[in-house]
Amino acid sequence: MTNHLYDTLFAARETSEKTFLIDNDGEMSYRAFLERVNQLANALIESGLQTGDRVAVQAQKSKAQLALYVATVKAGGVYLPLNTAYTAHELEYFITNAAASIIVVDAGNAEKVKDIADRQKASLLTLNQDETGSLTGLADQQGTAFTAIARGLEDLGAILYTSGTTGRSKGAQLCHRNLVSNTQILKDFWQFTQEDVLLHMLPIYHTHGLFVASNLLAYVGGTMIFLPKFDIEAAIAWMPKATSMMGVPTFYTRLLADDRFDKALSAHMRLFISGSAPLLAETHKQFEARTDKKILERYGMTETNMSTSNPYDGDRIAGTVGVPLPGVDVRIADEKGNLLPRGEIGIIELKGDNVFTGYWQMPEKTAESFRPDGYFITGDMARMDENGYITIVGRDKDLIISGGLNVYPKEVEGLIDAIEGVSESAVIAAPHKDFGEAVVAVIVRRNGQLTEKDIQQSLQDRLAKFKQPKAVIFLDELPRNTMGKVQKAALRKSYEKLFASV
Ligand code: AMP
């Protein structure tokens, strides 16, 4: 028996002197990286790791942290990366819920986590951004050989907790088959080869930067310019050395806001990919006008890896997330799971090797999330056109029902964003005595003179009365998480009493 993920994605590069990672400190070959993986795997075993144990990691992005992911999988463990923004109080939930047996945190947080580790009888190790800490210290003393622990297709490789906008966040269990199959599909669909040099500025506690980017580049034998985070100066400095980039929409709006980002700077790039949050059609168009290249937008989620994508060679259509990836069955259904005709708005349901195996120790939540025929209910609302292209119109819980009529926030946001002087908007519901819910527009304006009246007037002839905002709020910026997603739940909470006196 083999270790499916390690053997398929990494093993072939063990003796390769090709550069895998580049950063300001220099270059790291595949051989050096995979030797570090082996030292870390030995260190994990020495710290008590048993096959199937969870290794919870909250650390600043570093090459050692990426190696720790591969080491955990190779040593038969289950990797559990945690958002660096979580407080010690939040960590307690994840660590105890997942019953982690090894916990790795930045030394600065070790004191806060110590009690949790003791209660859990877990080993606590540290890993700092500069790669110092007790984990790397222990790894330094280990040999550079390690025989992979056998893990099959259905065995878990990772648990990633969903961002959880309602209730407790859930641990999405990803098995070796989920991760490997998606990497193999993306290689062909996006035509990645060993010639690729990927500009990597995403966090590695999330599926996008960890699996989509890192698994794929290792699998094809490419190189990653591995930077701590998105930084406009670094992006501009490194771009001429890259061939491809994966980003969230904010990366693209920030690049476009800088005049140094132009056709010449991006001449060497064969592919810009966007995902994790909706890319405005306007950004897609501005990008093409500036660079002559079309951003390739794709759609996925923690639970499903990547599910749809605009094509590499065919039409990349602004405002859409493309077509189902090979091997992924996508259907649009009503809330009861009945298939809807093409063009109608419903919930995306999907099935395939990419779809996770269920939520960690939450059988009811898992059962609620799947149809009896195995389709996963994503909660994303969308329509599919006659060519199979999918347009996402929002999350089902973002849907507004005003006076019994459905309002899709995306439609209203699109019209507001097109108003001269508007930079971006988020349309949400606020409880309302007469209408049940009322439409509220939260707007970031470029032009400070723009008033609520201007907005209402622009929408008057373009939108049915029930879809028009009953209130307009101007903010300096929209609340976003690190993956660029607008935090609509937070906005709804802020304005839940807006119509209380109506
Ligand atoms: P996460 O599990 O954090 O990756 O979040 C997944 C969610 O992000 C999906 O369910 C969608 O709501 C959203 N999402 C991801 N990619 C896109 C996209 N290209 N356009 C719109 N929403 C997206």
Description of the structure:
The chain is an alpha/beta fold and 502 residues long. Among the domains are: 4-189, 3-Layer(aba) Sandwich (Rossmann fold); 400-494, ANL, C-terminal domain (GMP Synthetase, Chain A, domain 3, 2-Layer Sandwich), CATH 3.30.300. The chain contains 15 helices and 24 strands. The chain has helices spanning 4-9, 30-46, 63-74, 88-97, 107-120, 134-140, 176-189, 207-220, 232-238, 249-256, 281-291, 363-369, 409-417, 452-460, 488-494; strands at 19-23, 26-29, 54-58, 78-81, 102-105, 123-126, 156-161, 171-175, 197-200, 223-226, 244-247, 271-274, 296-301, 305-309, 323-324, 329-333, 346-351, 376-384, 390-395, 400-402, 405-407, 422-432, 436-445, 471-474. The strands form six sheets. The chain has a nine-stranded mixed sheet with strand order 2-1-10-9-11-12-13-14-15. Strand 20 (400-402) and strand 21 (405-407) form a beta hairpin. The mean pLDDT is 95. Bound molecules: adenosine monophosphate (AMP). Adenosine monophosphate binds next to strand 13, strand 18 and strand 19. Residues 162-163, 207, 275-278, 297, 299-302, 321, 378, 380, 392, 395, 483 line the site of adenosine monophosphate (AMP).
